[in-house]
Amino acid sequence: MNGSASTRDATPDDKAPPVARTTRSKTGDMKRLLVAAEKGDAGSQFNLAVFYGNGVDDNGHVAPGDRAEAMKWLLRAAGQELPRAQHTLAEVYAKAPDAPDNRIRACAWFLRAVASSIGMHRHRAQAGFERISLQMTPAQIATAKRLARIWKHRIEAAANAGFPAISPRRAR
């Protein structure tokens, strides 16, 4: 070398302006997400549902999950025909404690996801429907299909009031 310092060994010029670091507050991100969700953005609603379902607080620290809040936002996003929210909601119901109403809800949401999805996502929703329907009676499947049709029109009101009431009709 010719006696000059290599680029790696050079020290920064004292007169150069400091490099500005851009940091984003997790609390600020959460507030922006909440505002967008409240304005009806389905993607933000889904992300809030995941956030509350995973049990993370506003600062990104582990906290107890808030299932009710997660379900509220998931229902709102699913009601706006967001396929990933519909599929996630179907899986939540499918994994819930064994009860006929949960299977009916899961089946209905899988059907909604099939109707609003394409490609691999549609195939996954169809497979979920088939998996759950194997555990159901023909009358329960008919109820799920009926619910899938009517939920498209009623889901927003149902999400605001809580879980939709399901009373399966008995086959006559």
| Total count of helical runs of at least 4 residues | 7
Would you tell me the overall average pLDDT?
Answer: 77
CATH class equals: Mainly Alpha
Termini distance? 95 Å
Strands, total number: 0
Q: In sequence order, what are the helices and strands, one letter per element?
A: HHHHHHH
Which CATH architecture would you pick? Alpha Horseshoe
State the helicity in percent bands. Answer: 55-70%
CATH topology: Serine Threonine Protein Phosphatase 5, Tetratricopeptide repeat
Estimate what percentage of residues fall within beta strands: under 5%
Q: Please tell me how large the radius of gyration is.
A: 24 Å
Structural class: mainly alpha
- Total domains, how many? 1
Q: Sketch the major β-sheet.
A: none
Describe the protein.
It is a single chain. It contains seven helices and no strands. With 172 residues, it is an all-alpha fold. It has a single domain, classed as Serine Threonine Protein Phosphatase 5, Tetratricopeptide repeat (Alpha Horseshoe). α2 (42-54) packs antiparallel against α3 (67-79), α4 runs antiparallel to α5 (100-116) and α5 crosses α7 (138-161). Residues 4-13, 16-25 and 163-172 have low confidence and may be disordered.
Summarize the structure.
By secondary structure, this protein is mainly alpha-helical. It has helices spanning 26-38, 42-54, 67-79, 83-95, 100-116, 119-133, 138-161.
